[in-house]
Amino acid sequence: MINCGAEPIYSMHVLALREGIRESKKDWLIKANIYPKAIDQATKAFIRELAVNMVDKAPIYCQKQPLLFRHLNYLAAQFPKAKFVHVLRDGRAAVASTIARRIYPRVTSENPHIALQIWDKTVRQMLVDCQDLGPQRCYTVVYEKLVLYPERELQKLLGKFYTTFTYQVKSDALLF
């Protein structure tokens, strides 16, 4: 069973806070022996706590927020046994959703090309990061294929991560 029930906004806030600390002047944090180890341990503990307590128990934890992939390298380092799945949507559908949900205030139906440029840049980086992480830990699946051919695509996905196709997977796996 896969549980994607936890609210991803909390993980996003914590990762953004950690990123802000990383980019700030942190001499005093280093002298106090807080950065990076304590900050990273706290970030990891918070995300793990969400995985364990905000959702029903399941062998696979899932975050369905694509922007978490902006933190893929960090998350991969913090969760070395985690597997990551990048669900790639068609750019047109992603842009239509972005406009409808008003994710970026400056993007409207009058200027969809801006949203498409943002989508393109973001997805290109996500694909590079996933490829850099390697096929044993990161897999990209096309959303439309997943919807049209779910069993085939899930078999391919689980076949990449596990030697035999089974719905029983390791309990320490985190999918983002």
Q: CATH superfamily membership, which one?
A: P-loop containing nucleotide triphosphate hydrolases
Extended strand count:
5
**pLDDT averaged residue by residue:** 85
The assigned CATH architecture is 3-Layer(aba) Sandwich
Largest sheet descriptor: 3 strands, parallel
Strand content: 5-15%
Shape: globular
> At the third CATH level, what is the topology name?
Rossmann fold
What letter string, H or E per element, gives the SSE order?
EHHHEHEHHEHHE
Segments where pLDDT lies below 50 for 5+ residues? 168-176
CATH class: Alpha Beta
Number of helices: 8
Please state how the strands of the largest beta sheet are arranged side by side.
1-2-5
- End-to-end Cα distance, whole Å, is 15 Å
Supply the number of structural domains.
Answer: 1
Instruction: Give helix % range.
Output: 40-55%
Topology:
Elements: E1 2-3, H1 8-23, H2 27-31, H3 37-53, E2 60-62, H4 72-78, E3 84-88, H5 91-101, H6 112-133, E4 138-142, H7 143-148, H8 150-161, E5 174-175
Parallel strand pairs: 1-2, 2-5, 3-4
Descriptive labels:
about 180 residues; mainly alpha; Rossmann fold; three-stranded parallel sheet; 8 helices; about 10% strand; disordered C terminus
What this model shows, in words?
- This protein is mainly α and 176 residues long.
- The chain has a single domain (2-175), classed as P-loop containing nucleotide triphosphate hydrolases (Rossmann fold).
- Helix content is 55%, strand content 10%.
- It is built from 8 helices and 5 strands; from the N terminus they run βαααβαβααβααβ.
- It has helices at residues 8-23, 27-31, 37-53, 72-78, 91-101, 112-133, 143-148, 150-161, and strands spanning 2-3, 60-62, 84-88, 138-142, 174-175.
- The strands form 2 sheets. A 3-stranded parallel sheet has the order 1-2-5, with no helix packed on it. Strands 3-4 form a two-stranded parallel sheet.
- Helix 1 (8-23) packs antiparallel against helix 3 (37-53).
- The protein starts with a strand and ends with a strand.
- Mean pLDDT is 85; it is low at 168-176.
- It is an enzyme of class 2 (transferase).
- One of its GO terms (cellular component) is Golgi apparatus.
- Belongs to the protein sulfotransferase family.
